[in-house]
Structures are given as C-alpha cells and as structure tokens.
Amino acid sequence: MVSEQWVDDAVFAATYAAQFASLVRLAYVTTGSLSVGEDVVQDSFVDLYRRGADVRDPVPWVRRAVVSRCTSWVRRRVLERRHAYTDLPDVPALSPDVVAVRAALARLRPRHRAAVFCRYYLDLPESAVAEALGCRPATVRSLLHRGLAVLREHLDD
User: Fold this and answer.
1) 43 vs 20: CA distance, rounded Å
2) Global pTM value
3) 26 within 8 A of 114, measured Cβ to Cβ
4) Does 3.40.50.2300 match the CATH number of domain 91-157?
5) What backbone phi and psi angles, to 5 degrees, belong to 86?
C-alpha cells in the first residue's frame, strides 16, 4: 500500500528552501563531510515527501531524520576505520584556532556534537534540540553540559 503523497507541494518546497542549508550545516558538523551531509539531508527530504500527510510538523521531523541518519553514518564510519587502514588526505593550511576548534569538535560524540551545533550554531531552544535528538530537554541540558566540558578541556590546552 502506497502512502498518501504530500498534501501541498508549495509547503514542501518552502520547507525545503528554508531548511536545506541549515540542515546541511548540521549534517556536515556531525559527519565531518559536506558531500555526506548533503546526501543525508536530501535523503531525509525524500523520506519526508514520501510520508506525505503522516507528518504534522515537517521541520522538526526532518531535523530528527537528519540527526538520526548522521548518527548512523558516523557509527558505520567508526566501524570501517576500525577495520581498515586509510591514508589521510592532504588538508590545506588552516589557522591554529580553526584547527583547534575542529579537533575539539571531533572529540565529541555525534550526539553531543549535534546538540552543541543545534543549540549554539542554529540557535534552537532546548525543546527544539530535544525534538531533533528524540530526547527530553533535561537530556539536552546534560548533552550540552558534557559536550561543552569536553570542548573546554581540549581548547584550554
């Protein structure tokens, strides 16, 4: 049985146009790859379109889908790295501050990284971050506290 298509293509197009860039940034910060981030967001919007009328509020739904797909991608990547040797690509010279922040963010778990990004980069309230991560606001506060502690530890070095 095929689910009912999206009720209003204009609403979908407006949601896509308004949210695509910020969701790609969220996926990029979580996965560390722009191309993977774009693919994850695109796939999430495809799923949103397919679900059609089943989704009441598309923005939190697609944000949650992006976070979930990013977490799965990172888990697979960690497993791949554990079992295969890969050469590191040449990276252009970056400022020491940029390198330090990226290194500190890389030390965060994907869920902590997503919480920090949603809260401080996307400037989402804790309730929206909780919805995106599929948890309670108290859990978001805990994730932010732990994530910021790790960032402080690695940026103070």
Assistant:
1) 11
2) 0.62
3) yes
4) no
5) -135, 140
User: Cα separation of 41 and 24, whole Å?
Assistant: 6
Q: Where are the domains of the chain?
A: 1-86, 91-157
For residue 107, the SS3 value is: coil
pLDDT of residue 1: 39
Structure tokens at 133: 């991560």
Query: Is 99 or 129 the better-scoring residue by pLDDT?
Result: 129
20-31 b/e with 16+ CB inside 10 Å = b?
eebbbbbbbbbb
Residues 1-52 pLDDT 10s: 344 555 678 889 999 999 999 999 999 999 999 999 999 999 999 999 998 7
Q: Residue holding tokens 């330090």? A: 100
**Could you say which DSSP state residue 95 is in?**
-
Closest CA to 26 of 94, 128, 139, 142: 128
Residue pair 150/107 in contact (Cβ under 8 Å)? The answer is yes
Q: Distance between CA 21 and CA 6 in Å, rounded?
A: 21
Amino acid 99: pLDDT? 82
| Range among 47-56, 75-84, 126-135 rated most confident | 126-135
Cα–Cα distance measured from residue 93 to residue 12, given in angstroms and rounded to the nearest whole number: 40
